[in-house]
């Protein structure tokens, strides 16, 4: 051991001495090119999600002036969608892109960093990450897996979903077959619904044939692309189950730490920039697609009745408490999230919420 340590130290000293003859150590690092691989949980070409991951890679290469190149692989191209976290954790690849709730089976506490039913919206979760200690907590949760997380995008408030029948009371969920993943699915199951798991490519046909009665997906921009308006009549809002789903970029810790400081800052900054870019794309694209759904495809927009929402909210709180009981990390994250949400919620009710109320033109929704 001692001999090996000695050889290692002298080896480093020798390399530094050689480097020192021509270039200083930082200059050697500054000239080094890093070629990384990124795997994602998204299908090829999926707008804003996969294209956002590709944009991240492109921007890193531009900002680093070619010192860092990241080759991006969509789901299944190198590893399956749900193998992304393990691939990054084990160092098979240097980085990945996805959403934290996909890792709920392995890391229950991860769920709070993507989307929580009746939880924080995009503005709220970004405030938690960048201004309320949320990112530090997220780093703590991923640390045992040798993974470093950064927010890399946000869908904004999603839609409640496409239903083949009207939802009047909570009773209407009894026996309802719905495609809805994650914590939202657990709430629907609590309400008596049957949660059906389907791959993206199977949803439309299942809905059209009545194999399922309802599905949620993302928001108008992605829902329009899936053609759900041809298979279900009622388009419900709001997406109480995903009020601001955060997308992530994750780095293998060793790979991240092997980078010179300026490249670490570049990938962090580009992740933050992509986060803003993504939310902006969703907001702009959803606004446009919603108009098309209403005016061109005559989709009927319906809001969930308030008493039904109250029931879902109550069941969501119960579900979150049950999830928080799974391990110490989940409890810690849940309590921190809850506390932060209460604070920004009170502020939001006299700021964003109150402002939306005075500018809302509710009748324009009818098209
Ligand atoms: Ca969704």
Sum up the structure in keywords.
2 domains, 11 strands, binds calcium ion, D-Maltodextrin-Binding Protein, domain 2, six-stranded mixed sheet, 367 residues, 14 helices, globular, five-stranded mixed sheet, alpha/beta
Structure description:
α3 packs antiparallel against α11 (261-295), α7 (182-190) crosses α12 and α12 runs antiparallel to α13. Residues 10-21 have low confidence and may be disordered. It is globular and about 70 Å long. The strands form 2 sheets. Strands 7-6-8-5-9-11 form a 6-stranded mixed beta sheet, covered by helices on one side. The chain has a 5-stranded mixed beta sheet with strand order 2-1-3-10-4. The chain folds into 2 domains: 33-154 and 245-282, Bacterial extracellular solute-binding protein, family 7 (D-Maltodextrin-Binding Protein, domain 2); 161-244 and 288-326, Periplasmic binding protein-like II (D-Maltodextrin-Binding Protein, domain 2, 3-Layer(aba) Sandwich). The chain contains 14 helices and 11 strands. The longest helix has 35 residues, at 261-295. α3 (50-63) links the parallel β1 and β2. With 367 residues, it is of the alpha/beta class. It binds calcium ion (CA). Calcium ion is lined by residues 158, 216-218, 242.
């Amino acid at each position: 051991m001692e001999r090996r340590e000695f050889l290692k130290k002298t080896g480093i000293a020798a390399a530094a001495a050689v480097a020192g003859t021509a270039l200083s150590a930082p200059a050697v690092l500054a000239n080094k090119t890093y070629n990384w691989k990124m795997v994602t949980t998204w299908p090829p070409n999926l707008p804003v999600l996969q294209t956002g991951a590709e944009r991240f890679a492109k921007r890193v290469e531009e900002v680093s002036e070619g010192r860092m190149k990241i080759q991006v692989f969509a789901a299944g191209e190198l590893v399956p969608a749900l193998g992304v976290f393990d691939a990054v954790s084990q160092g098979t690849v240097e980085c990945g892109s996805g959403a934290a709730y996909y890792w709920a089976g392995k890391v229950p506490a991860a769920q709070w960093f993507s989307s929580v039913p009746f939880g924080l919206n995009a503005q709220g979760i970004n405030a938690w990450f960048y201004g309320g200690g949320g990112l530090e907590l997220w780093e703590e949760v991923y640390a045992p897996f040798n993974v470093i997380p950064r927010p890399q995008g946000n869908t904004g408030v999603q839609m409640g979903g496409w239903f083949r029948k009207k939802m009047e009371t909570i009773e209407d969920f009894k026996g309802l077959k719905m495609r809805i993943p994650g914590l939202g699915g657990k709430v629907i199951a609590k309400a008596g619904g049957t949660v059906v798991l389907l791959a993206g490519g199977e949803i439309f046909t299942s809905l059209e044939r009545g194999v399922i009665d309802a599905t949620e997906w993302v928001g108008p921009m992605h829902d329009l692309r899936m053609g759900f308006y041809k298979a279900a009549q009622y388009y419900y809002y709001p997406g109480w189950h995903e009020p601001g789903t955060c997308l992530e970029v994750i780095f293998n810790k060793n790979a991240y730490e092997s980078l010179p400081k300026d490249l670490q800052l570049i990938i962090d900054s580009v992740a933050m920039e992509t986060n803003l870019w993504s939310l902006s794309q969703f907001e702009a694209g959803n606004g446009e697609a919603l108009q098309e759904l209403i005016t061109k495809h005559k989709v009927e927009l319906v809001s969930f009745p308030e008493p039904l929402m109250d029931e879902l909210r109550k069941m969501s709180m119960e579900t979150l408490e049950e999830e928080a009981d799974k391990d110490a990390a989940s409890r810690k994250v849940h309590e921190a999230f809850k506390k932060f949400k209460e604070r920004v919620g009170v502020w939001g009710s006299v700021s964003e919420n109150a402002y939306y109320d005075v500018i809302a033109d509710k009748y324009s929704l009818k098209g």
